């Protein structure tokens, strides 16, 4: 999710990503929900809260993944566990989440306990570059707005392919950049999202095919997520006092100022895809 700490892309280590989320998570809980991803608006619709749009996004991802009761699903970059919990509740599957932040893993376990999915969900602190799971042990995996943090996309995708059984499904929801993005735009967006890299939507299918999968579908939902930026701006205005109490006057002023540039850059040259693939 978005950053106000402006970590340089060259310093976006796994540890830096963990520190960023530990710092910024209370802000997103104040203005949205425990789902650390963008929101979704169906075509032709607008309005509603940021939190409501995030839940719609999660529900869309659940539909696209198609997990069923008895399936074992890997959540790569599980955050605070809300999407995983919602997936387990709606499908009856087993979900195992991995995050680079020990604090997030503990918070996700508490959230699952509160919502009655402790028997279906588990969360660990670990590195997606070296998954601590047996080969061919998962039916499906998803990465919701997490893979851009990874040091090596191809290495992560191959590692996920290792733990999926043949025919297992992979779902990726990811930010992409268009040909309109200048090098300066690309660098800024990487800083703003604490991202190691972004790629173009045209390059994504080739990356997926080269790492052990057959591409099933690529959905461009760019127009459906862009209202996130206005919704977040509205939520910041509504929750100013709570943000100020949780952080500081300086933090509030900085995020309000930076959000203008993030919004302008994203609207001009950022996109968003949802890709489903099958492990060959």
UniProtKB/TrEMBL annotation:
From the UniProt record, which GO molecular function terms apply?
Answer: S-adenosylmethionine-dependent methyltransferase activity
List, for all copies, the residue spans of the domain called Polyketide synthase-like methyltransferase: 50-261
Keyword set for this entry? Methyltransferase, S-adenosyl-L-methionine, Transferase, Ubiquinone
InterPro entries this protein is in? Erg6_SMT_methyltransf (IPR050447), MeTfrase_dom (IPR020803), Methyltransf_11 (IPR013216), SAM-dependent_MTases_sf (IPR029063)
- Keyword Transmembrane set for record: no
Q: Does the keyword Manganese apply?
A: no
Q: Which Pfam families match?
A: Methyltransf_11 (PF08241)
Task: Output one GO BP term.
Answer: methylation
Give the highest taxon in the source lineage: Bacteria
Alphabetized PANTHER family for the sequence: GERANYL DIPHOSPHATE 2-C-METHYLTRANSFERASE, ZGC:194242
Descriptive protein name: Gamma-tocopherol methyltransferase
């Amino acid at each position: 999710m978005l950053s106000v700490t402006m970590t340089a892309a060259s310093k976006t280590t796994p540890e830096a990503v963990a520190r960023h989320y530990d710092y910024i998570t209370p802000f997103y809980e104040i203005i949205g929900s425990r789902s650390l991803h963008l929101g979704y608006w169906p075509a032709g619709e607008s309005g509603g809260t940021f939190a409501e749009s995030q839940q719609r996004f999660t529900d869309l991802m659940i539909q696209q993944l198609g997990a069923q009761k008895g399936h074992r699903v890997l959540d790569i970059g599980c955050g605070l566990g809300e999407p995983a919990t919602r997936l387990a509740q709606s499908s009856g599957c087993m979900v195992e989440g991995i995050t680079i932040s020990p604090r997030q893993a503990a918070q996700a376990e508490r959230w699952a306990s509160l919502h009655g999915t402790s028997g279906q969900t588990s969360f660990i602190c670990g590195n997606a570059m070296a998954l601590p799971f047996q080969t061919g042990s998962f039916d499906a995996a998803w990465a919701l707005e997490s893979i851009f943090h990874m040091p090596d996309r191809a290495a992560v995708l191959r590692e996920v392919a290792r733990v999926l059984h043949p025919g297992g499904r992979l779902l990726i929801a990811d930010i992409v950049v268009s040909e309109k993005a200048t090098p300066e735009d690309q660098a800024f967006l990487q800083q703003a999202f604490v991202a190691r890299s972004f790629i173009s939507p045209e390059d994504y299918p080739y990356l997926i095919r080269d790492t052990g999968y057959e591409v099933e579908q690529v959905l461009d939902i760019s127009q459906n997520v862009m209202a996130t930026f206005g919704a977040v701006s509205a939520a910041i205005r509504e929750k100013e006092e709570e943000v100020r109490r949780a952080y500081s006057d300086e933090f509030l002023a900085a995020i309000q100022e930076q959000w203008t540039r993030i919004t302008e850059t994203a609207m001009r040259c950022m996109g968003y895809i949802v890709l489903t693939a099958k492990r060959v």
